[in-house]
UniProtKB/TrEMBL annotation:
One example GO MF annotation: metal ion binding
Domain ATP-grasp span(s) in chain numbering: 121-381
InterPro entries documented for this protein: ATP-grasp, YheC/D
Source organism of this protein record: Priestia megaterium (strain ATCC 12872 / QMB1551)
Coiled coil region boundaries: none
Keyword ATP-binding attached: yes
GO cellular component, one term: cytoplasm
SUPFAM superfamilies: Glutathione synthetase ATP-binding domain-like (SSF56059)
Entry keyword set: ATP-binding, Nucleotide-binding
Name of protein: ATP-grasp domain-containing protein
Length: 390
């Protein structure tokens, strides 16, 4: 039983805690202490789209003898940080222990480019604090890293940088359909499909509907998009004739988590089916989730279904392995794969900060949350032998 004074010394809130303790080299450590760093809003959804996940992660920590709090970028800038602790069904801003590991869930890519963020990373590094999923990976960076991997190359759509109208013209000489995707985009936003037929056809999707417009020339089409294209970098990707379920294209979101320093594991797979008439399946664009077996067994026999799922898993694990880098720690990836009309897999996108809403459950801690906590225990040396949270 710890006294209130000892709680204060450790900067833990004075309440009942189940914590892990390790005594080594004449030092007693309590923990692990995990910080989730993100933006903080002044409304009911304090942490935006990850508010439910934060509560879920804190609950899992309490059950398994860990301590977790949520912090702003400016909160963890000294050895005496502050953060948000979940107590009595609400978030309380208070003094907290110095973290043993930090999970980056900052939403805004621009924030990661600021001097404050770089100072924050340097501060954690100086104090040997693991900081995982430390930055977004843009689509061009991912393509460049994967294109030299012999095993993955057959599954990569041809991809080009969009620097001028000529780049688009060259791509359409090679492919009847192409997609224009923001290099730094997410959630299926600002994706344009261009088809070359008798005329040039432009498709694009908003939150509410899909638009299609014909153009006599590529010059006219490009002029229409130019104001948007010049605001951010875009790349060109060859169009893939995706397999459909009930006449709607679909893909697979595969959540992968690092099990230890070298090994990755698959935590969940879901099939995302687009809305009728849409060419993107993101949930933010109205897509629906289905179990992969439910969809695939409507299209293939059981042997082919097993083969496709096995191959998708192999590709996802290889992507995670190739994107792991000694100088930057990643512990979670959301891999988006699809299959074409012949059943061949294709790599669509890699997400460093996958949505925490797609596989939500109101009744239990999700496997993806347990997998993240499992890795935090491993990275902070608080995981006991043969312990694996499931």
């Amino acid at each position: 039983m710890m006294s209130e004074a000892l709680f204060t010394d450790f900067r833990f809130p004075y309440e009942t805690h189940q914590l892990r303790g390790i005594y080594e080299e004449n030092t007693f450590r309590l923990g692990p202490v995990i910080s989730i760093v993100t933006e903080v809003r002044e409304d009911e959804e304090l942490f935006g789209s990850i508010s439910v996940f934060c509560k879920e992660f804190v609950q899992a920590c309490k059950e398994l003898g860990c301590f977790c709090y949520v912090s702003k970028l400016s909160d963890v800038k000294s050895l005496s940080p502050k953060g948000y602790v979940y107590r009595a069904d609400r978030w309380v801003y208070s003094e907290v222990p110095f973290p043993g590991i930090v999970h980056n869930r900052i939403h805004a890519r621009k924030t990661e480019q600021t001097a404050d963020f770089q100072t924050f990373k340097t501060f954690l590094k100086e104090h040997d604090v693991p900081f995982f999923n430390a930055r977004y990976l843009n689509k061009w960076t991912v393509f460049q890293q994967l294109k030299d991997v012999v095993y993955l190359l057959p599954y990569l759509p041809k991809t080009y940088q969009l620097r001028s109208r000529q780049d688009l013209l060259d791509a359409l000489e090679l492919h009847d359909d192409v997609f224009l995707k923001p290099v730094h985009g997410s959630q299926g936003k600002n994706i344009f499909k261009i088809s070359k037929k008798e005329k040039y056809i432009l498709d694009y999707t908003t939150f509410t509907q899909t638009y299609e417009k014909e153009y006599e020339s590529l010059y006219d089409l490009f002029e229409t998009l130019y104001s948007q294209l010049k605001r951010q970098g875009f790349l060109i990707q060859e169009g893939i004739s995706l397999q459909t379920y009930k006449q709607c294209p679909f893909d697979f979101r595969i959540l992968c988590h690092k099990k230890d320093d070298l090994t990755w594991k698959i935590t969940s797979i879901v099939t995302r089916v687009s809305k009728p008439g849409n060419f993107v399946s993101n949930l933010a664009r109205g897509g629906d989730i289905h179990p992969p077996q439910q969809v695939l067994t409507q299209l293939y026999d059981s042997k082919t279904t097993r083969h496709i799922l096995s191959l998708l898993k192999e590709i996802a694990i290889e992507i995670c392995t190739q994107l792991s880098h000694p100088s930057e720690l990643y512990a979670e990836f959301g891999i988006d794969l699809a299959i074409d009309q012949e059943g061949k897999p294709w790599i669509i996108e890699v997400n460093v900060k996958p949505s925490k809403q797609s596989d939500s459950s109101a009744f239990s801690v999700r496997p993806s949350t347990k997998a993240l906590l499992d890795y935090c225990l491993h990275a902070t040396n608080f995981q006991f032998p043969k312990e694996d949270l499931r």
